[in-house]
């Protein structure tokens, strides 16, 4: 099973201006640096929480059709864009939506409702394309935005590399802020 980004988010949930205000940075001299830290903080928050903050398209590649419920690895999911199997010519063959049930949002999942066509390649022959992320920056919960600001500020304040005598850890408040949005998997 692998996850591939098909279409990245068009914007970040926090603007450069919002982050600069949080950092109390008034000049434009470090805009490139601050922007890089903003993007890094967003991606780190998404990875830590199994989240997508802004709309983005992903492909989950499987070796075979799921026999039971398949939980999608990111949250929230707004759409199942396509489910397909790869045929003998290497072309995707769409699985009819009538052959699976889908639950969107947090804890998104699909469950087969009938037999799917068999993929010809034994490895990576099933694709589940989906859109994940909140509708727009205004829909991203405030605690997740605060986690982004907190982590970006941490990156800004601790720019030098960690060494033998100095090890950096993500501030505990970041994990506390994203904890309510992480999906518990048993």
From TrEMBL:
Superkingdom of origin organism: Bacteria
InterPro entries registered for this protein in UniProt: Phage_CHP (IPR011738), Phage_gp6-like_head-tail (IPR021146), Phage_HK97_gp6-like (IPR006450)
Name of the protein this chain belongs to: Phage gp6-like head-tail connector protein
Organism whose genome encodes this protein: Hyphococcus luteus
């Amino acid at each position: 099973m692998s996850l591939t980004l098909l279409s990245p988010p068009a914007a970040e949930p926090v603007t450069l201006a919002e982050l600069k205000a949080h950092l109390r940075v008034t000049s434009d001299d470090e805009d490139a640096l601050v922007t890089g830290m903003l993007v890094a903080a967003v991606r780190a928050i998404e990875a830590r929480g199994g989240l997508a903050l802004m709309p983005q398209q992903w492909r989950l590649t499987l070796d075979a059709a799921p026999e039971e419920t398949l939980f999608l690895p990111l949250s929230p999911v707004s759409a199942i864009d396509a489910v397909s199997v790869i045929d003998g010519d290497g072309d995707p063959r769409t699985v009819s939506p009538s052959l699976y049930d889908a639950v969107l949002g947090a804890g998104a999942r699909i469950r087969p409702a009938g037999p799917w066509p068999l993929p010809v390649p034994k490895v990576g022959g099933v694709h589940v394309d989906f859109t994940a992320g909140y509708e727009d920056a205004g829909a991203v919960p405030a605690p997740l935005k605060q986690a982004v600001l907190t982590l970006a500020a941490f990156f800004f304040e601790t720019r030098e590399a960690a060494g033998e005598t100095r090890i950096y850890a993500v501030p505990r408040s970041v994990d506390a802020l994203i904890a309510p949005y992480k999906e518990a998997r048993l």
